[in-house]
Amino acid sequence: MRAGHQATGPGAITPDGCAVELYSRLPVGTEPDVIASAVPAGAHILELGCGVGRVTHPLLERGFTVTAVDESPAMLERVSGARTICSPIEDLDLGEQFDVVMLGSFLVHAGDVEVRQALLRACVRHVAPAGCVLIQREGEDWHNDVPRERVDPSGFTVRIVSSEPAGDGAHSVHAEYEFPDATWTQTFLSRPLAREQFEEILTEAGLKVDRYLTDDRTWVRAVPAA
Ligand SMILES: C[S@@+](CC[C@H](N)C(=O)[O-])C[C@H]1O[C@@H](n2cnc3c(N)ncnc32)[C@H](O)[C@@H]1O
To answer: What domains appear along the chain, each with residue ranges and CATH number?
Structure first.
């Protein structure tokens, strides 16, 4: 388990506390539409932290080619139709460049600054000079608006129970996913990043914001700064 991450619930759990069975049940939202609106048709997408392919599969259906990366073999077993690579993102060095590199699921908020820097370096290493990096970041009041819950129409409830300072600017977030027949919990470290801080860390990594893709600025299209 990665430091500061814990989880409970049935089935295999990834080093960052994600449950494979839970992610197999979660429906996809607007992510594929947001992504499709920001990249050329038929682009080759390097998806970092793909999980079971919740977003990968709709992207394949839309005609994109996807290389899907995750450090969990149990997650990758459920991905079909994409080339899969089992690796920590930090260590990934494929010697290839992609039209699009995608760092979704708020991974840019890694609690450990060195991990975050390594994630962004992996994005920069793999993006083509004329390509883009799509990043999903947390909403502005994400850590203040707690506790909160959302009842999904498909029949489960997700709760962000708490977000407590855990030292050095990181927060420990506790989440619960309650289904009629199973409950999963996840505790993970997340480093809040206001818009200015987020843009600064992109600059440090050699990227710049091209545009925000959603009104809440949670999806970002970044490009190489040089
Ligand atoms: C929250 S899940 C989301 C999965 C998928 N992106 C989705 O939206 O359904 C995060 C996934 O990223 C993977 N992951 C997290 N940090 C990683 C890292 N540093 N290197 C490789 N995989 C990582 C986990 O194993 C997990 O499958």
So the answer is: 20-140+194-224 (3.40.50.150)
Q: How confident is the prediction along the chain (226 residues), in pLDDT tens digits per residue?
A: 999 999 999 999 999 999 999 999 999 999 999 999 999 999 999 999 999 999 999 999 999 999 999 999 999 999 999 999 999 999 999 999 999 999 999 999 999 999 999 999 999 999 999 999 999 999 989 999 999 999 999 999 999 999 999 999 999 999 999 999 999 999 999 999 999 999 999 999 999 999 999 999 999 999 999 8
Say how many Å lie between the CA of residue 177 and the centre of ligand 1.
17
Integer Cα distance of 214 and 119 in angstroms: 22
Q: Which atom of ligand 1 is nearest to the CA of 88?
A: 20
The protein residue whose alpha carbon is closest to atom 15 in ligand 1 is 49
